[in-house]
Amino acid sequence: MTGHAIVVGGGIGGLATALALHRVGWDATVLERASELGEVGAGMSQAPNALRALAELGVEAEARAVGVPTYSANNLRRADGRYLQRARPVDPTPLLAFHRADLHRVLLDAAPGDWLRTNAEVTDVRQDGDGMTVVAGGTEYRADLVVGADGIHSAVRSAVWPDAEPPRHLGRTAWLGVADVAGLSGDLSGSVTMGNGDLFLIHPVSRGRAYWALLTSEPAAGVRYDDEKATALDHVADWHHPVPDLVRATPDEAVIHTDIRELPPLDTYVRGRAVLLGDAAHAMSPDRGQGAGHSLEDAVVLAHALATEPTVEVALARYDAERRPRDQATARGARADGARTASRTGQRVLMTMVQLMPAALWRKGLAPDGNPTWRWAPPPLTK
């Protein structure tokens, strides 16, 4: 089966969807409300499941060319610098770290350019007959289905799922940044440091930079500070190197402050011929590093279902049955992980468990097939 889809959202999930549809012979129109296509944010890592999805999308080589191996999962540390678990020089790492804009560019370069529409903010989504109509930027678009890949504040979800609960604050907030690492000392190969209920993540990214994220408890959503960088630095000023140096080396205006939120689980990703994927369907806590990765998975599974099932309705039902349980299980796990590390008591228990774990067992869990989430394999995308 082939057809035409409207994909709302030009981020990583939307572009992955466009590319996946293109590979199975579908056409699509990608609607992005911004005036330019680009990715907002700083950095991230992708695990083996996401890298397999990128391979099925035909862009693995290009992604690996802009990604940097990160040992963030191998190197766990205390705030004073002591290692709970430490990577050896001979240890491989299954994770690649990216600046979000670099991975977005890989997908943008691979997607058909004539499918993309900017300045196209969606104002209406409706089903009529055996198709869907979307109004965006004053223009009506009609297609066989609509894919909402437009993030946690999805216009498609608001229009078609008006009864859905809004995103909820998880009692945590984060500062993010990317710093030039020239002249900085300390381990910049990737690490996670815990202390006082805070967590500091480091990923190396391309062009001599490092991405960092500081996560801490914050009961109220929307709390902001006159000097965000100074506030972040206050949390980690006496932590081991290079933690405070990375914050200091980040331009003031480049420090991002964002609250940690998730989307309450939906009872279906499909209504009529509208379907949700990525953060529009399952925005989750970042603690398992799977938000963008599950968006890539969603895109591949959706395109495969549309290519192999006899009708759009059957394909969307299959997509929902395959993706929703996995996405929502990962979101539950990420929420639980975040709650554990946000608690001083939880951190102490976790650090004791990690320190007592035999190094060989720890490394086994970091193999590409070391856990069920990472073992996921994509269906084939062929025309």
From TrEMBL:
- SUPFAM superfamilies registered for this protein in UniProt: FAD/NAD(P)-binding domain
Q: What is this protein called?
A: FAD-dependent monooxygenase
> What does the record give under GO molecular function?
monooxygenase activity
Assigned keywords, A-Z = Monooxygenase, Oxidoreductase
Native organism is Promicromonospora kroppenstedtii
Q: Does the keyword Oxidoreductase apply?
A: yes
Which InterPro entries does this UniProt record tie to the protein? FAD-bd, FAD-dep_Monooxygenase_BioMet, FAD/NAD-bd_sf
Q: Which Gene3D superfamilies match?
A: FAD/NAD(P)-binding domain
Q: Compositional bias of type Basic and acidic residues: which residue ranges?
A: 320-338
Q: Where is this region: Disordered?
A: 320-344
Domain named FAD-binding is located at 5-332
